[in-house]
Amino acid sequence: MTDHNSNPVFHVRPGGALSGRFRVPGDKSMSHRAVMLGALAEGDTRVEGFLEGADALATLATFRQLGVRIEGPRHGALRIRGVGLHGLSAADGPLDLGNSGTSMRLLAGLLAGQSFDSTLTGDDSLRRRPMGRVTDPLADMGAAIETAPGGTAPLLVRGGRPLQGITYQMPVASAQVKSALLLAGLYAEGETWVHEPAPTRDHTERMLTGFGYPVRRDGAWSGVTGGGRLQACDIDVPADISSAAFFLVGASIAEGSDLVLEHVGVNPTRTGVLDILDLMGADIELRHPREVGGEPVADVHVRARPLHGITIPERLVPLAIDEFPAIFIAAACANGTTVLTGAEELRVKESDRIAVMADGLTALGIQVEPRADGIVIHGGTLTGGTVDSHGDHRIAMAFAMAALRSSDTVTIRDCRNVDTSFPGFADLSREAGLGLDVEHHAPEAP
Ligand SMILES: O=C(O)C1=C[C@@H](OP(=O)(O)O)[C@@H](O)[C@H](O)C1
Ligand SMILES: C=C(OP(=O)(O)O)C(=O)O
Predict the structure, then answer these.
(1) How remote is the CA of residue 406 from the centroid of ligand 1, in Å?
(2) Is 105 in the pocket of ligand 2 (CB under 6 A)?
(3) Is 29 labeled as ligand-binding?
(4) Does one domain contain both 223 and 270?
(5) In which residue ranges of the chain is pLDDT below 70?
(6) What is the pLDDT at residue 394?
(7) pLDDT of residue 441
(8) Rg (Cα) of the chain, in Å, rounded?
(9) Assigned domain for 445 exists
(10) Using CA positions, which residue lies closest to atom 13 of ligand 1?
(11) What is the interface pTM, i.e. ipTM, of the complex?
(12) Which H or E element spans position 228?
């Protein structure tokens, strides 16, 4: 377990290979939604495979503050005593969502439909991220949400406002915006329809359907009608493909690697990383494809194979949006040049993932050309060196895998947030063959 009073530094020895068969922790997107929809349902919802990482735990703590009784998590199992769509009660203080953009944006929509006020806040990173993308369309529905100057958190979500359904075409392909509007739509008069400019993860739509709430889907449109009910159900959360991605890349780049990742969620709105690695020449095979609770799942077998640079098709960007830090490491180890465009969203994640990855790759001797909406990465030889993750969990884990191909130790600073999405990453990756040591640092005085 990570010591939350310290800011760990990873030291990763060069070389090695990854092998074994294991299951990475539960899907973060589905874990958030399981708690939210379970809380709003009538009856008890049992969840298995819940992600016990800080982001999903922030959502869970929020619903406890909103008066929902939740037992667990115990080894990924939860029992949520649903209170029904209108059964939440006002929290006794601000809701602190830590590092989690998904929690804040989805809750902005859900809480806009309540009879009471709520304040949503988070850490420094979350308080820098754009919230206007949800508060503007929610205002069109009749919500009253106050933001800090610049449209950032803290958000004061006023309750007791009647909401009306809207028809909204999203300017960015965002599952968080789509989900926020659909959740507000549960409380709105009439129909709420959201159009996505490119396919984004559809866990909200699938899970609402699993809870017996009708969702209409028509091409790029998703729609709900307010005033229905959610019926409790059982949810089996698969392993998170976004966490699996570090091992897919690590095993692809490290000669001699051979890994099986079990029970991975392979919803087609999430498998861009598999398509991109396939285009780069990776050896990845899906075994025993099956459907679990309305979500496709498979065991993923990966073996090392030389990769080559590619121009990443823009249509794959939203389908791999969280996997780019790992994909950039694959590109750095590939023969030739990889070009990414159409990915300006990476600049407003937990960190500016284009700038922070470009700096880290440069520090490890790789030639890169960052662009406003992407990056060009020239595959080369990784030296050792020190990189700063800027508190971004995915950047820390991506650079840990880079050491498999570096000539000297890779040191990664500011790894405290790895626990947000992947508790146990250090131990699991060590068991798989990574030479990772964790050094704990006391936090700096404010
Ligand atoms: O809906 C979700 O669970 C998520 C959607 C994506 O964000 P955007 O909707 O901002 O693209 C993704 O980056 C995030 O990690 C999780
Ligand atoms: C972008 C991410 O999460 P969130 O937006 O929920 O902070 C992520 O996990 O990579």
Answers:
(1) 31
(2) no
(3) yes
(4) no
(5) 1-5, 442-446
(6) 98
(7) 79
(8) 21
(9) no
(10) 322
(11) 0.99
(12) none
Q: Whose CA is nearest to atom 1 of ligand 2?
A: 349
Residues 210 and 304 in one domain: no
Residue 323 Cβ inside 6 Å of ligand 2? The answer reads no
What whole-number distance in Å separates Cα of residue 91 and Cα of residue 98?
17
Ligand 1: atom nearest CA of 173 is 11
Residues 176 and 44 in one domain: yes
* Contacts made by residues 298-301, CB under 8 angstroms, sequence distance 24+: 298/264, 298/266, 299/260, 299/261, 299/262, 299/263, 299/264, 300/244, 300/248, 300/260, 300/261, 300/264, 300/266, 300/274, 301/259, 301/260
142 assigned binding-site residue: no
As for ligand 1, residues whose beta carbon falls within 6 Å of it are 29, 102, 174-176, 179, 201, 321-322, 345
Nearest to 168 by CA among 139, 209, 131: 139
Indicate which CATH number applies to the domain containing 252: 3.65.10.10
Domain boundary pick from 180, 201, 236: 236
Q: Counting atoms of ligand 1 from 1, which one is nearest the CA of 175?
A: 9
- In total, how many domains does the chain have? 2
Q: 267 lies in which domain range? A: 9-26+238-439
178 is in an annotated binding site: no
Q: Do 225 and 258 have their domain in common?
A: no
Give the closest residue (by CA) to ligand 1 atom 15: 322
Q: Which residues are catalytic?
A: 322
- Is residue 20 one of the residues assigned to a domain? yes
pLDDT digits 0-9 by tens, 147-160: 999 999 999 999 99
86-108 core/surface letters (b: 16 or more CB in 10 A; e: else): eebeebeebbbbbbbbbbbbbbb
Ligand nearest to the CA of 56: 2
Q: Are residues 137 and 15 in the same domain?
A: no
**How much is the pLDDT for 445?**
60
What pTM did the predictor assign?
0.98
Is 101 known to sit in a ligand binding site? Answer: yes
Report whether the peptide linkage leading into residue 199 is cis, meaning its omega lies within 30 degrees of zero. no
d(CA 112, CA 91): 14
Q: Which of 29, 170, 327 to mutate for ligand 1's pocket (most ligand atoms within 8 Å of CB)?
A: 29
Distance CA 74, CA 209 (A): 26
**Which strand (E) or helix (H) includes residue 82?**
strand 77-83
The answer to whether the CB of 350 is under 6 A from ligand 2 is: yes
